[in-house]
Design a protein that fits this description.
Its EC number is 2.7.13.3. GO terms for molecular function: ATP binding; phosphorelay sensor kinase activity; protein dimerization activity. The chain is α/β, with parallel strands linked by helices. The chain has three domains: 139 residues, no CATH class; 67 residues; 126 residues, 2-Layer Sandwich (Heat Shock Protein 90). 60% of the residues lie in helices and 9% in strands.
């Protein structure tokens, strides 16, 4: 006879989740979330705990002695066990709860045999109710939800069991304590979850900002490498053509020189092929290379004119004789001026701007200075298109050429960008 096995409920079903929750209650009640870690804030929890203990200890002892007729020594021991652990709750609330919980149950058993003339409440006394609620706040700010559920269930079970032995004429407080403890646990755990979420969000934003800055830097370096490829490839192509055409342009060349020119042309072709393979890695995102020649200082005038058309009064002071400017420096100077003018249009519309380019003592200086903005930033930014990476791209281009960059606000509210680029390098001298 074959019996059909009963299908197991899905792991994500409500009964399965409930069993998983209750399965770990025992372990949660004996495993603190973070032993030794203090509650939020530093001094305030200790002050509050000391205040509660100092107020509840004498009131508990007096109540037990005067109203319930408990022996003074026993009342002092119970009051100490119920109030003093609140100091421990600042750093170890779960351990403090165990002490208070056991003391409260023992205190209820002591009250069961008392015959005080003014006894009114069972099984918890009013001072015990206040101290227990304060302990719930400490637990909710620190322990896991599973531990909080176990604490609340233990409180309810103990109250209902003791309710079965309630002496006649006493008012029960176990339902009031059960409701108050549940509300406080829910409220404080929600506050803690919100604080933790905000902290994790702040950490994630910090990590995202660092990753964004790193990605921006890498993108700008890749862009610079792609642009410099065109510059270097042009020179390599010229070397190849000159080496290949040398035997035809100079018929009287000896055979050794012809072979040397052939070797130079071959090496130049191989270098150009390697550079193109490297560029294909930098363009792995599928972007196509620019077909137009790379711009230089001869197009700075067009940048200034475009800035003026965007509504920014700008003037250009371009030295008549800049000398022989290397292509890498020429391209970097143009990009720096382009990004600086784009930033003026974005962040300081209406500010008068001056662009100066001059060569002196082997250095090319590009200076872009703007005054305070005369208009509010428009909702749609127009004007000179930049690379999109601002000062990061400027610094990388200056570092590439071995120059220096000085940027910063001016006393009158404007901004200054000054780049010094070398016109000669040790390799070209």
């Amino acid at each position: 006879m074959v019996t059909a096995s009963r299908p197991e409920p899905p792991a994500d079903s409500l009964p399965a989740r409930a069993r998983e929750m209750f399965r770990g209650l025992g372990a949660a009640l004996i495993t603190p979330a973070a032993p030794g870690a203090p509650l939020p804030a530093r001094l305030l929890p200790y002050v509050l705990a000391l205040g509660f203990s100092a107020a509840l200890l004498p009131s508990t002892v007096l109540l037990l002695v005067n109203d319930y007729g408990v022996n003074g020594a026993l009342a002092g021991a119970l009051g100490t066990a119920q109030a003093a652990p609140l100091l421990l709750a600042v750093t170890r609330p779960l351990q403090a709860w165990w002490i208070v919980f056991v003391a409260d149950v023992l205190g209820a058993l002591v009250l069961l045999g008392s015959d005080g003339p003014r006894a009114q409440y069972w099984p918890w006394t009013p001072p015990l109710l206040v101290g227990y609620c304060a302990l719930m706040v400490a637990l909710g700010l620190r322990e896991s939800r599973r531990a909080l559920l176990g604490v609340w269930l233990a409180t309810g079970v103990a109250g209902f069991v003791l309710e079965a032995f309630r002496p006649a004429g006493l008012t029960s407080l176990h339902l009031l304590l059960l409701v108050l403890s549940g509300v406080l646990l829910l409220l404080t755990s929600a506050i803690r979850a919100r604080v933790d979420a905000q902290r994790r969000l702040a950490e994630q934003e910090t990590i995202s900002e660092a990753e964004r800055a790193r990605r921006t830097l890498l993108e700008e370096r890749a862009r610079i490498a792609r642009e410099l490829h065109d510059v270097v490839a042009h020179h390599m192509s010229v070397i190849t053509v000159q080496a290949d055409s040398a035997p035809y342009r100079i018929p009287e060349l000896p055979e050794a020189a012809r072979e040397e020119f052939t070797s130079i042309a071959t090496s130049a072709r191989e270098s150009l092929a390697e550079m193109r393979r490297l560029l294909s890695v930098l363009r792995s995102d599928g972007s196509e290379g620019e077909r137009a020649p790379q711009p230089g200082l001869d197009r700075v005038q067009q940048l200034v004119e475009a800035t003026v058309r965007a509504g920014v009064p700008a003037e250009l002071r371009l030295a008549a004789d800049l000398g022989d400017v290397p292509q890498a420096v020429d391209l970097s100077a143009y990009r720096i001026a382009q990004e600086a003018l784009a930033n003026v249009v974005r962040h300081a519309p209406g500010a008068s701007t001056r662009v100066s380019v001059r060569a002196e003592d082997g250095w090319l200086t590009v200076l872009v200075v703007n005054g305070p903005s005369l208009e509010e930033r428009s909702s749609v930014e127009r004007g000179v298109p930049g690379t999109g990476h601002g000062l990061v791209g400027m610094r990388e281009r200056v570092r590439l050429t071995g120059g220096s960059l000085d940027t910063g606000p001016l006393p009158d509210g404007g901004f200054r960008v000054a780049a010094r680029l070398p016109l000669r390098t040790k390799d070209t001298e």
